[in-house]
Known about the structure:
With 291 residues, the chain is an alpha+beta fold. The protein folds into 2 domains: 3-116, D-amino Acid Aminotransferase, Chain A, domain 1 (2-Layer Sandwich); 124-275, D-amino Acid Aminotransferase, subunit A, domain 2 (D-amino Acid Aminotransferase, Chain A, domain 2, Alpha-Beta Barrel). 29% of the residues lie in helices and 27% in strands. The strands form 2 sheets. Strands 7, 9, 10, 11, 12, 13, 14, 15 and 16 form a 9-stranded mixed β-sheet that branches. Strands 1, 2, 3, 4, 5, 6 and 8 form a 7-stranded antiparallel β-sheet that branches. Strand 9 and strand 10 (177-180) form a beta hairpin. It starts with a strand and ends with a helix.
Amino acid sequence: MEKQTYFRGVWGGAREVSLPIGLHGLWNACSVFDGARAISGRVPDLLEHCQRLVDAAPSMLMQSPLSAERIAALALEGIARFPDTAELYITPLLFSTGEGLIPDAGATEFMLSVAEAPLPRRGLEVCTGIGITRPAPGTMQTAYKASWLYANAVPARRAAQQRGFDDAVMLAPSGQVVEFSTANLWLVRDGRLVTPPDAGSILPGITRARVLDLLRAAGLPVEEAPLYPADLEAASELFSTGNSGQIRPVTRLDARDMAPGPVYRQVHRIYWDWLQTQTVAALQARLAARA
Length: 291
């Protein structure tokens, strides 16, 4: 897969860079990133993803050297290096280059990766009961894509894959269902769409928020409510929302085969119709209005 990287003012293909051996971001996991998509010239919520990255920095005692608008503009530069029909994953990263236990906000560096990453074309097969829970509220910063959170997500995903699944259903320490390892979870129960609330153990996804807004604007019954494993068993449909897969149906839950249902198809259509309006030109106009 082709990749373009921006670092210290220079664009290039995937390459090595020289960094200090005592890098705080390496030894103490003081780094945070975000993920956005470009899909055939559409850039859904790209500016919002960049703003979340900038907002995340102070919570990790860092300070972004670039504004969200500048990061989004750089992302558009990277996107322009690929064909118009490309499906891309955009990853802006902030990390501390200082040394010692406490990061120096002024030593925050920025890096950006734009890489070919085709959207998944099949459903998601997931399992429960992996024995790894999300952090309890108040124990870790879960509102952003802090690198240290992936010490939780990666083993969960790996455990699921070792059992022959794509991903794992994650629980909070309370036993509530909260999300998948790297995507938010939705189900259909008695004809209503339900997704777990932001109660301190989920990453409140930008795609999740967008889907909530679109569904409410369309007048669909949707709620944020606590869910438990029994709710998964009773659900008529399951799907995920997230940047990597956008909106993806669950086609297997443990030993139960499932199929994309009518509610999922309606949600997918509503979101996809909105996505068609999220052109590069539309984002450029937003950025120009903020200049």
